[in-house]
Amino acid sequence: MSNYQKRSKTELAQRVAQDIFDGAYVNLGIGQPTLVANHLPAGREVVLHSENGILGMGPAPAAGHEDYDLTNAGKQPVTLLPGGSFFHHADSFAMMRGGHLDICVLGAFQVSSTGDLANWSTGEPGAIPAVGGAMDLAVGAKSTWVMMDLLTKTGECKVVRECSYPLTGLACVKRIYTDLCTLECTQGGLRLIDTVDGLTHAELERIVGLPIRQ
Question: What is the value of pTM for the model shown?
Answer without folding.
Answer: 0.95
